[in-house]
Amino acid sequence: MDSLTHLVVGACIGEVFLGRQLGRRALLWGAFAQSAPDLDVVAALWTDTAENLLAHRGFTHSFLFAAVLTPLFALAADRWHRPHDIRFSRFCWFFGVAIFGHTLLDGLNSYGTGWFEPFSHARVALNVLFVADPFFSLGPAVAVLVLLLLRRHRQYHRHWAWAGLVWCVAYLGYCTWNRSVIVREVHQLLAQQHVPYSRTFITPTVMNNWLWFVAAGDDRGYHIGYRSVFDTTDSLELTYFPRHTELLDQVEDKVELDRLVRFAQEFYTVEQLPDSTLLFNDLRFGQIMGWRDPHGKFTFHYYLHDPARNELVVQRGRFGGWDRDAVSSLVHRIRGR
């Protein structure tokens, strides 16, 4: 999830566990604990782009890391606030929920999270939420704002924090239901339309949970389309993108290429631009307004022959060209066909 979501969710967790004893300091501890696994961003200081893609959400987002960090943070907080009447076990529960919660939340979107590092390099991507879903963050954000602005009895503060967390759980349940409906419909429509595929990738589109991006294909290429939870048509409009893996024979840096292929988890295509530049597309992050332009660029496109142009690749151009018409087109497509 995005940093803001981790901050407000963590603050609510801090209020629930430690608000009565620490007051507003509990919000700060919660925000810090929920954000701690993202300290891996410092790896970008000494790694190249392809290596950093795997370093992010790697070991620091594993269950092992959370299990090690929880008692260490608990011990630090216990000593920091002495004298106090907070049981050490309560500190452990608080940091455990906050840090493990971060790990679990990040596994809900398409990036891929190394839950089982270093024992397994498999990445978990449940594709239930977009990486930044304002509707998911709304509840805890409002709760934290109230906790910061209003002077109320501690009991009421805790109620607000609980309300923010319950909102997240309820919305997550709703999103899980949406995904189950979309997955069932997509596979039925692929079968009806006799679309050949050996794997599918279905994930929410930008900032919402109603319009879903679909990639279905095999080693030869992928069919790309979109399906809204409000669609009533018995067809799935698809655009085919050949994979063109034969172009990869031109790539000299095999280490960089191997990292990109591993990161993409088989969902990639390669294309050659008019100037002979090779573009590696990771399909899992969708297209730039693909619901409006079926042939639009993929958000993640990596220049294989020009590393200097790859400082930002995951959300490259995500909101490029967005205006009122772009937002209107997204809303219109969400409303269904």
What's the topology here?
Layout: H1 3-22, H2 25-35, H3 49-55, H4 63-80, H5 88-106, H6 134-149, H7 154-192, E1 199-204, E2 211-218, E3 221-228, E4 238-242, H8 254-264, E5 268-272, E6 278-287, E7 298-303, H9 324-334
Antiparallel strand pairs: 1-2, 2-3, 3-4, 5-6, 6-7
Report what the structure shows.
This protein is of the alpha+beta class and 337 residues long. Helices cover 45% and strands 14% of the residues. It is globular. The protein starts with a helix and ends with a helix.
What descriptors fit this protein?
about 325 residues; 4-stranded antiparallel beta sheet; 3-stranded antiparallel beta sheet; 9 helices; about 15% strand; globular
Question: Could you provide a short overview of the structure?
Answer:
The chain is of the alpha+beta class. The chain has nine helices and seven strands.
Main sheet specs = 4 strands, antiparallel
User: Radius of gyration in whole Å, from Cα?
Assistant: 22 Å
Number of helices: 9
The helical percent reads: 40-55%
Structural class: alpha+beta
Name the helix and strand elements from N-terminus to C-terminus, one letter apiece.
HHHHHHHEEEEHEEEH
- Spatial strand order of the main sheet: 1-2-3-4
Based on Cα principal axes, name the global outline: globular
